Amino acid sequence: MLRTARQMSVAIHSGKKVVASVENGSSGSVGSPTKLSLYSEIPTEEITLQQFEAFALERLSVLKALETGKAQAVEWVEYVKKQIGKSVIQRHQQIDKIGHHILRLAFCKTEENRRWFITQETALFRYRFEESDAQSIDQFFNENQLTYNAIESSTLNRELQDKLRTLSGNGQLDAGGYYDVRWEDALELVGKRRVLLMAGRAFVGRKDLVSIVVARFRSRLSRT
């Protein structure tokens, strides 16, 4: 975490508005919508002190709402949307990254704070992953060199389809298709007999893939 703090180069210059317009304590929206991210790149944009505070407080409000929603509501995603709005959860890309790294720095002082931050950021990543379409997910995999190859159910041969139907428990193929991943990346699912193993590869349904990717996100965040 000390390495991240030293590398972080988000500059603060009063009177200079580069990333977004901030008025009355609220951040504007600029840039492309948020994509899935592992936050491996440190932001280098120049922002004002007012923006620095606004982005940090907005990110903190999202994480606090996630924590409260998970603790108090069964449909916690809907609770969070109601409390802070879907547009804030799906914040624009650069604002999202800056807010993440500000809090990453702020919550590194104690192990308790660090664990809290990692838990809430992982929940936010899970939400975004589950809300993403197949094209966005494939783009995320490509950008981060994650070798999870999408396979349409209709392209599988009859033998594989029959085995996957048997494995599903309901006789149905995963409507979202399957992903071909290394079996080492799917150990939890292998233990639960939720994947089909063939020649060192695991065929994972899209609805189960989230557990693999979320675990990867949390592990990577924990190491930085």
Structure description:
- This protein is α+β, with helices and mostly antiparallel strands.
- It has 2 domains: 2-131, no CATH class; 141-208.
- Helix content is 54%, strand content 11%.
- The protein is built from 10 helices and 8 strands.
- The protein has helices at residues 2-7, 49-72, 76-84, 86-89, 93-106, 111-131, 134-143, 158-168, 187-191, 206-223; strands at 11-12, 22-23, 26-27, 46-47, 149-151, 178-182, 196-198, 201-205.
- A 4-stranded antiparallel β-sheet has the order 5-6-8-7.
- β7 and β8 form a beta hairpin.
Helices and strands: which structural class?
A: alpha+beta
Q: Residue ranges: pLDDT <50 for 5 or more in a row?
A: 1-31
Fraction of residues in helix: 40-55%
Number of helices: 10
What is the subunit organization of this protein?
Answer: single chain
Strand tally: 8
Task: Report the major sheet.
Answer: 4 strands, antiparallel
What's the structural domain tally?
2
Average pLDDT score: 77
Query: Based on CA inertia axes, which overall geometry fits?
Result: elongated
Cα-based radius of gyration, to the nearest Å: 20 Å
Give the amount of beta strand, in percent.
5-15%
List the secondary-structure elements in sequence, H or E.
HEEEEHHHHHHEHEHEEH
- Order of strands in the sheet with most strands: 5-6-8-7
User: Distance between the terminal alpha carbons, to the nearest Å?
Assistant: 6 Å
Quick recap of the structure?
The protein has 224 residues and is of the alpha+beta class.
What is the strand and helix layout of this fold?
Blueprint (H helix, E strand, L loop, with lengths): L1 H6 L3 E2 L9 E2 L2 E2 L18 E2 L1 H24 L3 H9 L1 H4 L3 H14 L4 H21 L2 H10 L5 E3 L6 H11 L9 E5 L4 H5 L4 E3 L2 E5 H18 L1
Parallel strand pairs: 1-4
Antiparallel strand pairs: 2-3, 5-6, 6-8, 7-8
